[in-house]
């Protein structure tokens, strides 16, 4: 708990320091504060004196509230107390005493985030299939698809969907034992169980569940004993007709050093991917978030945020929270596009420098194949030019928001059907051609870090 509190506090300070406050104000008012703990939904902060207390209450309390809410992902109040840590020490001593007298409480399994439900999940083209598959599994665990393997890029809603499945199953069957764990936690627990000779406890914990949700499975790649243990856990649960749901940032066949026997098992059920959301979905997500948090934001501002932040829903939500925090800090209730631009200027300038253009893609692909960009755009159809051109079109479609006709234009005025053909051809080849997979990886990396 102590470390968790400290971690939360550090994250909050980082937001204030890096993103919002001037160095002088930060050093004057914030440096001397200390977190006390969370009591009954209130985050308590120790302040050194009455003057600081006044300033924090007047200027920074709302900001703290927004930042803590953001970090913890839960509704929270903030209270500041002068000398609160001393009082706390006395209270803690008393609580410790009481605690010792209590019988040990049953172990609580990885808790589900109450905000991650199907109700709060916005459906769009990018996640429709994954959502439908998740609902099917939630309605009929171990009967619909087992395992369900959800994959997609960072911050696109995999964890949200997993938790939503867990909530739904628990609501339908309150006695169902639902366990959520990240593969890192699974690994750490396994290591500890071996170190402290508690292997049996570990097995009992994971093999006696009705629903096992394992997040970010890609991290068990290369960890032999974790894979071995997970393999047996998987088999036992599967045979006992228990539901297994796994998430990863990529499909099983792209996780390096994942044992084949696991790869095969992951393919037994259903694999569903989540793509980056399109503009309409990004707007719908912002609207939903604003509704949940009771933010009043104009559609101009939402359009502005959705235009600037495209590929990560966590960042999209973070941007909205940042705009709201900025407005409360500057005491500016009129949230305009200008205010949003000011609040987001650091994030946006860094994401703009990251922005991917067709010129950049053409440069990287031409370079990779030892061609000139002119050749890539030319009408030549020999394979040594046509194939790299198709790859460049594929990457343009995949990595930018450009429309098909626009991509065609950029490749010597070709028709959009040529772009579709190139995209499909390369997508198909990627299913079987390992050397193409690795070439695309190298080029994508280069495009992302030119
Ligand atoms: N379709 C959606 N509707 C509403 N909120 C969403 C949606 N998709 C993602 N989010 C929100 O975006 C944030 C990031 O989502 P989540 O943590 O589920 O991503 P992830 O894919 O598991 O990311 P990571 O790869 O980092 O584990 C969460 O706050 C989640 O609620």
Automatic annotation (TrEMBL):
GO BP terms: DNA replication initiation; regulation of DNA replication
Region (Domain III, AAA+ region): 111-327
Annotated region (Domain I, interacts with DnaA modulators), positions in chain: 1-101
Span of domain Chromosomal replication initiator DnaA C-terminal: 357-426
First-listed, main subcellular location of the protein, grouped into a coarse class: cytoplasm
InterPro entries membership: AAA+_ATPase, Chromosome_initiator_DnaA, Chromosome_initiator_DnaA-like, Chromosome_initiator_DnaA_CS, DnaA_C, DnaA_dom, DnaA_N_dom, DnaA_N_sf
Location of the region described as Domain IV, binds dsDNA in the Swiss-Prot/TrEMBL record: 328-450
Family annotation (SUPFAM superfamilies): P-loop containing nucleoside triphosphate hydrolases, TrpR-like
Domain of life: Bacteria
Recorded GO MF terms: ATP binding; DNA replication origin binding; lipid binding
Binding site for ATP: 155, 157-159
The AAA+ ATPase domain, residue ranges: 144-273
Cellular component GO terms, alphabetical: cytoplasm; plasma membrane
Claim: Nucleotide-binding is one of the keywords in the record: yes
Localization terms from the record: Cytoplasm
CDD domains (alphabetical): AAA (cd00009), Bac_DnaA_C (cd06571)
Subunit structure: Oligomerizes as a right-handed, spiral filament on DNA at oriC.
Domain notes for this protein: Domain I is involved in oligomerization and binding regulators, domain II is flexibile and of varying length in different bacteria, domain III forms the AAA+ region, while domain IV binds dsDNA.
Membership in a protein family: Belongs to the DnaA family.
Protein role: Plays an essential role in the initiation and regulation of chromosomal replication. ATP-DnaA binds to the origin of replication (oriC) to initiate formation of the DNA replication initiation complex once per cell cycle. Binds the DnaA box (a 9 base pair repeat at the origin) and separates the double-stranded (ds)DNA. Forms a right-handed helical filament on oriC DNA; dsDNA binds to the exterior of the filament while single-stranded (ss)DNA is stabiized in the filament's interior.
Protein name from the UniProt record: Chromosomal replication initiator protein DnaA
Organism: Proteiniclasticum sediminis
Taxonomic lineage of the native organism: Bacteria, Bacillati, Bacillota, Clostridia, Eubacteriales
